[in-house]
Amino acid sequence: MLTAVKIKTAVVGLIYKKALTLANSSRRNYTTGEIVNLMSADAQQLMELTVNINLLWSAPFQIIMAVIFLWKELGPSVLAGVALLLLVIPINALIAAKVKRLKKSLMKYSDQRVKLLSEMLHGIKILKLYAWEPAYQRKVMSIRECEVDVLKSSGYLTTYSMLTLTCIPFMVSLATLGVFFHLDEENVLTATKVFTSISLFNILRLPLFDLPSVISAVAQTKVSLSRLEDFLCAEDINPKDLLFFNCLSISIPEGSLVAVVGQVGSGKSSFLSAVLGEMEKLEGTVQRRGSVAYASQQAWIQNDTLQENILFGADLHRQYYELVLESCALLPDLEQLPNGDQTEIGERGVNISGGQKQRVSLARAVYSNADLYLLDDPLSAVDVHVGKHLFEKIIGPSGLLKSKTRILVTHNVTFLPHTDLIIVMEEGRISQMGTYQELVSKRANFAELIQVFSADETECGQDQNFLGSYSLIKKRMGWMKMTVVLKYLQAFNWRWMWLTIAAYLGQNALAIGQNLWLSTWTAETAEVSDFTEWKQSQNYKLHIYGLLGVIQGLFVCCGAYVITRGSLSASRALHHQLLDNVLHLPLQRFETDPVGQIINRFTKVKGKLVYFPFYENEAYVIGTILVITSASPLFIVVVIPLGYFYFTIQRYYIASSRQIRRLAGASHSPVISHFSETLVGRSTIRAFGHQERFIRKNNDVVYENLVYFYNNVISNRWLCVRLEFLGNLMVFFAALFVVLAGNTMSSSTVGLSISYALNVSNSSLNFWVRKACEIETNAVSIERICEYAKMDKEGPWITSKRPPVGWPDRGIIKFVNYKAQYRKDLGLALKDVSFQTQSKEKVGIVGRTGAGKSTLTNCLFRVLEGSEGKIVIDGIDISTIGLHDLRGNLNIIPQDPILFSGTLQSNLDPLGKHSDLELWEVLELCHLKDFVQSLPKKLLHEISEGGENLSVGQRQLVCLARALLRKTKILVLDEATASVDMETDNLVQSTIKREFHNCTILTIAHRLHTVMDSERVLVLDTGRILEYDTPHNLLQRKGAFSEMVAEAGIRRDKENLGINTS
Question: What does the pLDDT look like over 420-434, one tens digit per residue?
Fold first, then answer.
């Protein structure tokens, strides 16, 4: 077992190391779900085979030894049984080959399902805002149905295995006895021969069952090894291999500040990736000196405390740490946190805003004190005043990094005069390069770029409140609840359950009946006076023995069949319930529960959650006690104390083992979460050169999981020793009472009693307790599934009250004394908000970080339910209708451009409601048509997981195209152009104005110029409305809005409301 654990640890470590060194070209071939499956399923398969590998020689050895002893008892007739065994082995080999093919199919479907679930859970906000849950639920269920079909075929093969296990010893004994009688008429069936043979035939049962199982495991492991080999042999990244776009050539002086600008898709982020060594080399070389720090465009945040996210494995130097916090404008945020910088941040930073994530990411880079800083547009997700603060205090000529080499990708041209060198990218090449003055004086494309970018931008931050500390492991104590068992049996189907019990009772009764028949037969042999008469009756008795065996085989088949049907029914029902419950959870739940933990629940929903052969074994043990007691009534005196000790051991073991297994299950989630987190942030980890530290952390979480696993193994050994001792005591007392009975007991009864006692001692007691514990452990999986049913759900998707067709037709939104809070223990995020829009009105929503802007849109979509007041849209209180009736009739372009793996067409129109012509029209409106037409497969172009093969700006434009396909009267723009350059932003804004001219539009401002031409502007501060009027009137008042405009450097001309830089 130790060897098996070491092998699993080594394989997990290899997979983790490989994931960190995998080249981007290779990474595209593997989704996160597939790589996680390699770590969980395939590594586990290797470990399980290592544990049982010795059965490949020990099982045949046991079979050979049993056959040798049988030869001594029954002579050459045993060859008939051996021939039957040899006939079964190739059949088992064929079954193993079939299992191998089924395993491949099962793993393929399992990978697809886990991958889709992972993407759905990471993009759950989009699914909820667009009311796409049912469509994606059907996708998951269709994959699950394919998986269940494979499980069904596997279950029918299990039926054959159960038949082999139960009936082969009987068939071997029947064939051997039949030949024994026909070889020599003088052969007589005595108790010695019969029960010695029966014991030997029973010894054959286990190796005969184990051998095909281990052969099947070898086949499955071969598949796993093939998958692991393909992954481990995939191409690695070479830090020296860089892609130079169209003969890209540049030299950057040490200690300079370099700005990289250009339109969406021009190659800005790819330029940084090339410097990092993240791109495939075609030709050329790169030379860089010193350590590197990297702040990615989409900030990567670990599931750790805020302080650990900044330190990133470095030692804490308090003075410098405080300076970094101040420079990154994080001190005001720390005051809002329940535990300051010790507050735990959720997975992917789900419980902090986009601006806060970017500042933490920047602080991490600054604290590393590297020589080269690669900053991929970190200022796009912060307020304009915060952006200026960050540039002045950190990036600029007088900032903290003034002596370092800095490469800054930016869309904010106001910082360009302060840079030493500007690189203008266009279609993967450098179109221009020089200082600000040099490029402006050339009056070429750069001057046009500056003209387009003339309006400065401000970002008002997403204001999602901190959700507090983040819990990874919930401790579960206590015994298995009966409600959990009933839940499973209900899913299993009561009809299948009663049929299963009947089948197992029947097969055990027939097994006992067979042995009783042999016992009676041998007793008659001992008493027979007329040998000729006995010979005439032996054929009849042999036929009866054979008939009992055939009927037993039928019961075995029926039992295995109904278990398969019931288990599949339970698996299908529980998976559907879990998926339905998860999709009905409110969005806040996904911000506190790790995605890895939720996926872990889905991977536990397998074919058999409760092992019903436990009840077969239970019936066998009870039958054994009855047989021995009927032979030796005094045995009942021993059964009582033995039973007491047995159940004491069982209770002690199950209570301990259940908790150990629960801890092992709970400690497995951090392994998956850490691995998934690493896959997302691998570029940042490699840029900082922290691969070894993350490998050590992975080893730590794996080690913690293995500690619990090893304790579970030790507890099993502890159980085995005690149960073997109890079993031996049972044999001892059974034999003792037989001896004490003297001649009062027939030899056939003695043989029956001892052979049954031996069977119980060898395997049944141990098997019984282990399977009882396995039932409890599997019940924990069901218990966790049931937990999701008990969690608070969001409102029903559809209610009896439906809005009229075509609602909303005017787009009038009215907030009436509305209050909302993220949690009961937190303050109000919206406080007495009351305002009303007019039909087709364009309203801008502005405010500083934490003002309540995104909370307002969350309430409009009922992502966050109000605590008081109401929201009315075209005369209907939105709290009175179903969520899908509401969300399906609203439209939003979210801040985070989330795409799903699949075709571009499926990302634009997952419900399949629109024609290709309509898709091309919206692509043209979004200025993506030329790009898509240049792709080989056009609309069928495969989008990689998370849309990684598109730039962030292109992803945002795809999200705009989605919105254009939805014809609704209300549109919310949640900082929708945060990731695009100013030129594209202007094109997008003009498209929105033209295509949504008859809609009510709520715009959360990213760049203030986007709301300057709004009909009215709503100014929020700490959840309250400060101002609500036209931009012109607000500027005249010299209030909060006027201050923000002044800070942004925007001057409004009173006559024409034009935009000019001051």
Answer: 888 888 777 777 788
Q: What is the pLDDT of residues 863-889, one digit of tens each?
A: 888 888 999 999 899 999 999 999 989
Question: Distance (Å, rounded) from C-alpha 995 to C-alpha 550?
Answer: 76
Per the CB < 8 A criterion, the answer to whether 225 and 38 are in contact is no
Query: For tokens 């020689």, what's the residue?
Result: 57
Residues 6 or more apart whose CB falls under 8 angstroms from that of 118 comprise 31, 32, 33, 36, 595, 599, 676
Q: Does this model's pTM top 0.85?
A: no
What is the phi/psi pair of residue 836, to 5°?
-140, 140
Tokens of 251: 């030299």
pLDDT for residue 818 is more than 80: yes
DSSP lists the bridge partners of residue 844 as 1003, 1017
CA 1062 – CA 1048 distance, rounded (Å)? 9
SS3 232: helix
Phi, psi of 431 (to 5 degrees): -85, -35
CA angle, 510 then 78 then 764, to 5°: 40
Domain locations along the chain: 257-453, 900-949
Nearby residues of 113 by Cβ (< 8 Å), 6 or more positions away: 140, 143, 144, 147, 602
Tokens describing residue 650: 């069982």
CA–CA dist 742, 726 (Å, integer): 25
Residues 6+ apart with CB under 8 A from 506: 552, 555
- Could you tell me which residues come within 8 angstroms of residue 354 by beta carbon, excluding any fewer than 6 positions away? 299, 381, 461, 462, 895, 896, 975, 978
Spatial separation of the C-alpha atoms in residues 876 and 129, rounded to whole Å: 19
Nearest to 174 by CA among 90, 91, 86, 83: 83
CB 667 within 8 A of CB 273: no
The two three-digit tokens of residue 3, written as one number? 């060897």
In CATH, which superfamily holds the domain spanning 257-453? P-loop containing nucleotide triphosphate hydrolases (3.40.50.300)
